[in-house]
């Protein structure tokens, strides 16, 4: 965990792996959520910083993202999904009226 590219992951190319240990992976371009940031007034943030909101694509329901199990990896992945290169900083515990 904590790695954002395969080159950062530990892996062994000189091991006795059999096909019973092969990895299967399913990926998609279109995922279940859109993420966006809002400012203190609830407007979409254009600065790359703000309150993280998730929008479920099928039902159009919006909600803030809870910090339970949230990590630097989560932040980096979500930033990349929103078109940024990386996460610089994330925090929790703030309360805004838009919440």
Explain what you see.
Helices cover 10% and strands 15% of the residues. With 99 residues, the chain is of the alpha+beta class. Strands 1-2-3 form a 3-stranded antiparallel beta sheet, with no helix packed on it. The longest helix has 10 residues, at 72-81. It starts with 32 loop residues before the first strand and ends in an 18-residue tail after the last helix.
Task: Describe the structure concisely for a colleague.
This protein has one helix and three strands.
What topology does this entry show?
Blueprint: E1 33-38, E2 51-56, E3 62-64, H1 72-81
Antiparallel strand pairs: 1-2, 2-3
Give a count of the beta strands, DSSP E runs of length 2 or more: 3
SS field, number of helical segments: 1
Radius of gyration: 17 Å
- Output the helix-strand order: EEEH
Q: Output the structural class.
A: alpha+beta
State the helical fraction.
10-25%
Strand neighbour order, sheet with most strands: 1-2-3
Main attributes?
single chain, 99 residues, alpha+beta, three-stranded antiparallel sheet, 1 helix, 3 strands
């Amino acid at each position: 965990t904590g790695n954002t590219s395969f080159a950062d992951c530990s892996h062994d190319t000189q091991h006795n792996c059999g096909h019973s240990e092969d990895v299967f992976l399913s990926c998609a371009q279109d995922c279940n959520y859109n993420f966006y940031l809002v400012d203190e007034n609830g407007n979409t943030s254009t600065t790359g910083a703000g309150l993280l909101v998730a929008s479920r694509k099928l039902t159009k329901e919006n909600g803030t993202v809870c910090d339970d199990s949230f990590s630097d990896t989560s932040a980096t992945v979500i930033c990349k999904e929103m078109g940024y290169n990386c996460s610089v900083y994330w925090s929790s515990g703030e309360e805004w009226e838009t919440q």
